[in-house]
Amino acid sequence: MIEYLLIAPILIGILCFFARSKKEVEAISLTGSITTLVIGLTLVENVYRQGVIISWTNALFADAFSAFIVLIVSIVGFVASIYSIGYMGHEFKHGIMDFRKLKIYYVLFHIFMFTMLLVGVTNNLGLWIAIEMTTLVSALLMILYTKKSSVEAAWKYMIICTVGITFALFGTILTYYAAVKILGETGDALNWTSLIAVAGQFDPTIMKLAFIFILIGYGTKAGLAPMHTWLPDAHSEAPTPVSALLSGVLLNCAMYGIIRFYTIATKSTGPDFTGNLLIIFGLLSLGVAVPFIILQEDYKRMLAYSSVEHMGIIALGIGFGGVYGIFGAVLHMFNHAMTKSLMFFGAGNVLLKYETKEIGKVSGIVKSMPATGAMLLIGGLAITGSPPFSIFLSEFTILSAGFLQGNIISSVLFLLFMIMIFAGFFNNLAKMTFGTSGIIPGEVSRWTLGAMAILLVFVIVLGVYIPPFFYEMIMKVVAVVR
Amino acid sequence: MSEVIFGSKIMQLLIAFILVSTFMILGSTRLYSCVRSFGIQSFLLACVAGIVAYSTGKNDIFIVALLTLIIKSAVIPYIFIYIIREIKVKREVELYVNISPSIIIGGILVVISYYLIRSISIISELSSLALSASVSLVSIGLFIMISRKKALMQMLGILIMENGLFLGAISLTNGMPLLVELGIFFDVLIGVLIMGILIFRINKTFESIDTDMLKTLIG
């Protein structure tokens, strides 16, 4: 089962490479991502029914948490591949991309999907390898544009994330060292399943050190402040469908790495040490995002800083701990993935139409592109945490967890930052959506609107109603994390 | 077990030479000699892995030692030399921090690393030597990345850090499980290739590989 999930995107990538026309490559990519989605959903269902699945001599495994990551990756990946047809088609029509580049885009897109799925299903703490692979592939996606700024962003991304990931490797080595003392030098000693059983006996000093390195390492990749500096560059300079995947999914994958280690480390160090570290980094990320969102001049960068903010919120949720905190954080991963992708897709439409990324030069989106404008407004309300949308629910859960666990100061700060970000973000969004526009009305492409509409369903429905099976799924994830 | 191996004279000599090779990189102004020193460092690392493999009799570590020899001390230096030749850059390192302060800072970093590892004291005296050398390599690699202008040197810095971690892993636990080690080698190799592609692209777009140019995206 898990093998199919990994083989499918690679095969599709290879097939895309042999396509001979634009239509062909798009058809392969779309059917391919539907296949990945179907396999992904089947896997999620199997895990939901039977519990843990292990395959390929213990190297691959899927428990509730992996399944949850697979769910996010495959849904956003599917939607992004629909959006790509509209967006990249437009770039192709205007001569920004030639056919060769378009083809390479789709090949890399599916390989990128493969690496992210691999992050979810490796049993091994060598999860590191998968996360490093995501960096490598996405850096290549970024330099598809030959602009100076894209090359600069890709280089920074590559260097900063690789260094970060190197620290994570050191944390992994230390964890392995702690495990070897208990389990002996077997190939299994890095396996998630065998680690979790004995994590309580690990030497707390080593685990503290390991967790710090892991948090800094994967935190770099997850965009936690103060290691976030590459993020706004990379997310704003990548092709828009890739921006959505980077912000919505890849950050979650890195967060997944942190949370996995959090579970192991907490068993040996106790929740105070790991929890407080996560709270500090979470609040720092929220705080750093505030001024950059309020004073931002580039709307894609604004969305990128908003991702820093939301990763901070997830870290806070885990840091607060307890069933509520973790439930909120996990739900927030899903909600943020959907909403942020929606926002990036909207921003991509605006970029194609207005051909500028500056907030000051864009106005009257509602008039020039009514559907995109309306969805951007709803998405904007949702991403800043207004009721009755999905993100409100998860943020509220995290906030109440904070008060319940007695972290009054952090919770109040959290609330304060949220209000400032709401004001700043909405001020900028309102400038863009309302007012007059000198541009001939008309949407960019139906494909892009379709992709946004699918995401909008999640944003609206999950705000008012969490289906029982989804609730139960998240509770299973919480049981894994705690 | 690993303590005994790392306590041996020959091992300590090798580790000392690894540190010396790092300082050779810090102290040279020519790109070629930096790459050569890196090759020597990787070769010494392969020797360390080889000795560990020989003493423990584990085939896994032999494979790792062999891969280190092939990939890190031959293939990767070759890729570097290929890049330097193709992009026809000036073959000097170009520094933000001059050679003599660089070496002093390197020395300070080594001392700090030794004290740091001693103070944590998670392992015995003997193999703590290797672990502190590994931490020194990581910190000097990081220092090389921020103190040299050329994009190539940042790439080299990352590889030195990776070498440091390799030494750390092998001195703490006799290396990671084979599957993980293979994955890391794969990532390092692909990483070097992709960074190479990026450097070519930087050279084409900016007509230079000085990272000074890459300072437009802020705020």
Can you walk through the features of this model?
The complex is a heterodimer of chains A (482) and B (219). With 482 residues, chain A is an all-alpha fold. Chain A has a domain at 270-482. Chain A has helices at residues 2-17, 22-50, 64-93, 99-121, 127-142, 148-183, 192-198, 204-222, 230-237, 240-269, 271-294, 299-320, 322-354, 365-368, 370-383, 390-404, 408-433, 446-464, 468-481; strands at residues 53-55, 60-62. In chain A, strands 1-2 form a two-stranded antiparallel ribbon. In chain A, β1 and β2 (60-62) form a beta hairpin. In chain A, α1 runs antiparallel to α4 and α2 packs parallel to α4 (99-121). The longest helix of chain A has 36 residues, at 148-183. The radius of gyration of chain A is 21 Å and the shape is globular. The mean pLDDT of chain A is 90. Chain B has helices spanning 2-7, 9-27, 31-56, 59-87, 99-120, 125-147, 151-173, 178-206. Chain B is mainly α. Chain B has one domain. Chain B has eight helices and no strands. In chain B, 81% of the residues lie in helices and 0% in strands. The interface between A and B is large, with 52 and 43 residues.
Fold topology:
The complex is a heterodimer of chains A (482) and B (219).
Chain A: H1 2-17, H2 22-50, E1 53-55, E2 60-62, H3 64-93, H4 99-121, H5 127-142, H6 148-183, H7 192-198, H8 204-222, H9 230-237, H10 240-269, H11 271-294, H12 299-320, H13 322-354, H14 365-368, H15 370-383, H16 390-404, H17 408-433, H18 446-464, H19 468-481
Antiparallel strand pairs in A: 1-2
Helix pairs in contact in A: 1-2, 1-4, 2-3, 2-4, 3-4, 3-10, 3-13, 3-18, 4-5, 4-10, 5-6, 5-10, 6-8, 6-9, 8-10, 8-11, 9-10, 9-12, 10-11, 10-12, 10-13, 11-12, 11-17, 12-13, 12-16, 12-17, 13-15, 13-16, 13-18, 13-19, 15-17, 15-18, 16-17, 16-18
Chain B: H1 2-7, H2 9-27, H3 31-56, H4 59-87, H5 99-120, H6 125-147, H7 151-173, H8 178-206
Helix pairs in contact in B: 2-3, 2-6, 3-4, 3-7, 4-8, 5-6, 6-7, 7-8
